[in-house]
Predict the 3D structure of the following.
Amino acid sequence: MYDVCILGKGPAGLSAGIYAVRAGAQTLIIGGADGALAKAKRIDNYFGIATISGQDLLDAGQAQYTALGGETLEAEVTAVEMGPGGFVLHTADRQIEAKAIVLAMGKGRKGASLPGETEFLGRGVSHCAVCDGFFFKKKRVGVLGSGAYAASEARQMLAFTPDVTIFTDGKEPAVEMPCTVETAKLSALTGEARLSAVQTADGRSFPLDGFFIARGSAGASELALKLGVPTENGNIRVDRDGMTALPGVFAAGDCLGGLCQVSVSVGTGALAGQRAAEFVRQR
């Protein structure tokens, strides 16, 4: 079991890792695809550095963290739950235990919504199988996505109903899926008072009672939702120490809202990493 697991290897996550390791915590950073900073060709407003690329800045942070003895795992976390000694993090092929976690995965960038997605939110459309799966026992359910996160949400729903279809919206599945897959491009979610069907661009209609959004990778706010951590307008709420309302769960970076800048992410990451290590030490 790790003392601190940090979800996200951008500037907030790496900064949290550096401070957690320096505070004496056995630390693991888990991260998948490169985030927004890696795509930045030129940064010229970071304190003390005239000009640097985003990738070079990330590489320097990773090297510093690794030199201190921190561990890194290239993986996507699809779910987090409470465990006997703290928290259990799920990836595609393993489970990892930690006494404290830092959510530093940035804001989810899921692309445009389907017509009807917003209108039926809470009336058949959900962003959390852990939260709402119980209400769809033995009903017809769809899951939107093509990756490991969608597969994880589908497996969660199969515990409640055998009638689960994954809709990839025109994409090929990136992982092995646990149920029926429909790859057609989607056009809209339809219904009256509640969701009743999903329409495809080729004119077909699939009757549904529930539709779970799991595009791309699970972001910080999605994982917070599964843990029951309060959010506001999609931003995670934390106290002055960077801890959420759930003891042992900290957050840093763009997922907090406000000014989305590298300097802010590094600062909130440092606070969250330091306080997470202290949280573990005090217990």
User: Anything to note?
Assistant: The first helix runs from residue 11 to 22. The longest strand covers residues 95-103. Helices lie at 11-22, 54-67, 129-132, 148-158, 220-227, 262-282. The mean pLDDT is 93.
